[in-house]
Amino acid sequence: MTCGRIHSVGIQWTSLLLVLTEAIVWPSQNESAPSDIVQLQDEATTDKDSPSAISRAQELHFGPINANEGPSYQTVPPIEYSHALRERAEELFGTVSQQIGHKAKKYKGSFSIFATSFGETVAKIVIYQRGLGRENGPWPMLPDGVYVLVRCNGSAQRFLWQADVLKSNPYCPRLDLRRTLAIAPKHSERFAYFRIEPEDEMRTVANLLVLCSSI
């Protein structure tokens, strides 16, 4: 009888071990990763320099652009800027306006480019010269020059950046969505920007602004 009891207990422990073993799910080598892990892997392998990758990185790590944060600049009438800067800005504006007509407009202190489909300001041409105009907020150290500004909030953010409209232009990588400016009095409109260098091809820069207007 004693041996029978020991044998019975042994069977019970063996059965319990089998049950516990079957309850644990061991992943096989061929089993695919969960969808959320696959999504993270896809984002990690995306071209980090593409506009869409920058836009996604901004949403994931920095959050949406806050319209009330960042520096802004109040321009002065063009006549107050140096002749060389005015001439360069006028040349760029003329090249753009020849292609998009009334969607390019000259204002008191800057030039604006408007979207074709919804009329929002999508880009600007701005002259910056130290000592002229008014700098607001944490102003970056910018050299004097003519700057191209491309909208990165509002409806333009979705149409320009998430749709990769600007990706074909070689100057697009100069636009950093984490570094933005606003032009007074519309402080809520944020723009990524870059300075036009002396060696830059003006028609290619103009093409970037034409692409902005195409949405």
Brief sketch in words of this structure:
By secondary structure, this protein is an alpha+beta fold. Helices cover 38% and strands 20% of the residues.
Radius of gyration: 29 Å
Major sheet description: 8 strands, mixed
Number of helices: 6
In total, the number of strands is 8
Q: Helix- and strand-based class? A: alpha+beta
Q: What is the 3D form?
A: globular
The fraction of residues in strands falls at 15-25%
Unreliable stretches, pLDDT < 50, 5 or more residues? 1-65
The N- to C-terminal Cα distance equals 90 Å
Strands across the major sheet, in which order? 2-3-4-6-8-7-1-5
Succession of helices and strands: HHHEHEEEEEHEEH
Topology:
Elements: H1 2-23, H2 35-44, H3 51-62, E1 72-74, H4 83-100, E2 104-106, E3 111-114, E4 121-128, E5 134-136, E6 145-151, H5 155-162, E7 180-183, E8 186-195, H6 202-213
Parallel strand pairs: 1-7
Antiparallel strand pairs: 1-5, 2-3, 3-4, 4-6, 6-8, 7-8
